[in-house]
Amino acid sequence: MRVLFNSRAKHDYLADALTLLSGWTREGEQIRRTLAIDDTQHAALTERVKVVADALHLRPEISRQSDSTQIRVGHGNGEPLTEGEVLLAARIEDAYRAVTEP
């Protein structure tokens, strides 16, 4: 069965989903996460994120700054966050756990 969401219900659904993603902060129509990982973990994370992002047809911004990796998901041009972008953030969390667990 397919459920139709009106725009308000969709917004509430995304807001609820974002609360489950600890460490992510919302900046307008983008979400951001900073991860304290080394260069090797950064490279592994970037490769994993690229595979998922390509499958979802999304382009997150990933940058390395001294001892941390910063990730931004969303368009930032006034377009609201989509389900795919929130899903990408959740998959990034999975990838982060995979590259940092012993």
TrEMBL record:
<dbReference type="GO" id="GO:0008124">
    <property type="term" value="F:4-alpha-hydroxytetrahydrobiopterin dehydratase activity"/>
</dbReference>
<comment type="similarity">
    <text>Belongs to the pterin-4-alpha-carbinolamine dehydratase family.</text>
</comment>
<keyword id="KW-0456">Lyase</keyword>
<dbReference type="Pfam" id="PF01329">
    <property type="entry name" value="Pterin_4a"/>
</dbReference>
<dbReference type="InterPro" id="IPR001533">
    <property type="entry name" value="Pterin_deHydtase"/>
</dbReference>
<protein>
    <recommendedName>
        <fullName>Putative pterin-4-alpha-carbinolamine dehydratase</fullName>
        <ecNumber>4.2.1.96</ecNumber>
    </recommendedName>
</protein>
<dbReference type="InterPro" id="IPR036428">
    <property type="entry name" value="PCD_sf"/>
</dbReference>
